[in-house]
Amino acid sequence: MKTTAAKTSRKSTSATKSSLGANSIRDQVQEVLAWLKSNSSKKVLDGMARYAIPSDKAFGVKVGVMQKQAKSLGRNHELALALWKTGWYEARMVATFLDDPERVTPAQMDRWCRDFDSWGICDTACFHLFDRTPYAFQKVEQWAGRREEFVKRAAFALLASLALHNKQAANDLFLRCLALCEKAASDERNFVKKGVSWALRLMGRRNLELNKAVLMVAGRLAASTQPAERWVGKDTLRDLNRPAVVRRLKK
């Protein structure tokens, strides 16, 4: 029975991919939306509120399921743009998995960033797409000074993603971002200060030079009388002083 089900699933995915390739972008969008609806779950939808993700325009589809479907469809910049315009949460998630980083423009990054309404779509776009574009560090600097909560979070979610994924980036690129982190650490909003901490922690894990620089910033923040700064500093120090992190950096 499992073998038959697996074959059926593969045939369904293959048929969907073949159909998408032959249809117009409008038809492709409708097929993806229909697929999302057929794979929705009330339990997943109801659970989104617990994670502060708006569910008024969502189907309730697990992230892993969306990633698998997007992988089966392959890169498709035009479809990604069209899916984003629908406004559906899962359609936008799939768009971040589908889009081609080489075809993403700075203007598109700004447009999508202005649409962020939760950490879920913000972090997914930064972690799976934006950090692979040549404009990533430029956008970190631009967005870090913005007032909108999820635009500002995007700056640090993107910086964290770069610290984790961009192995070739020079230390200087990250060192220039430390001042942005220290300035934003005073932001009391939960999603912003957690984004700042995330960026500092991942930069501090890259190598000894960055670790030393991040620890200096974290130390100043931890000694602050300002609650948000103190929280960011202590959270960063707690992580970077873990024995496992220290051992890996010393190797």
Question: What does the model show?
Answer:
This protein has helices at residues 2-22, 25-38, 42-47, 63-73, 77-85, 89-98, 106-115, 119-128, 136-144, 149-165, 171-175, 178-184, 190-204, 208-222, 227-240, 243-250. It folds into two domains: 1-99, no CATH class; 106-251, Serine Threonine Protein Phosphatase 5, Tetratricopeptide repeat. Mean pLDDT is 93; it is low at 1-15. The radius of gyration is 20 Å and the shape is globular. The chain is an all-alpha fold and 251 residues long. The protein starts with a helix and ends with a helix. Helix content is 72%, strand content 0%. The longest helix has 21 residues, at 2-22.
Set down the secondary structure blueprint.
Blueprint: H1 2-22, H2 25-38, H3 42-47, H4 63-73, H5 77-85, H6 89-98, H7 106-115, H8 119-128, H9 136-144, H10 149-165, H11 171-175, H12 178-184, H13 190-204, H14 208-222, H15 227-240, H16 243-250
Helix pairs in contact: 1-2, 2-5, 4-6, 5-6, 6-8, 8-10, 9-10, 10-13, 12-13, 13-14, 13-15, 14-15
Q: Which architecture of the largest domain would the CATH scheme give at its second level?
A: Alpha Horseshoe
Compressed to H and E, one letter per element, the order equals HHHHHHHHHHHHHHHH
Helix content: over 70%
> In terms of structural class, how would the helical and strand content be classed?
mainly alpha
CATH fold name of the largest domain: Serine Threonine Protein Phosphatase 5, Tetratricopeptide repeat
Poorly predicted runs: 1-15
Which CATH C-level class of the largest domain is it?
Mainly Alpha
Bulk shape: globular
Distance between the termini: 49 Å
Largest sheet: none
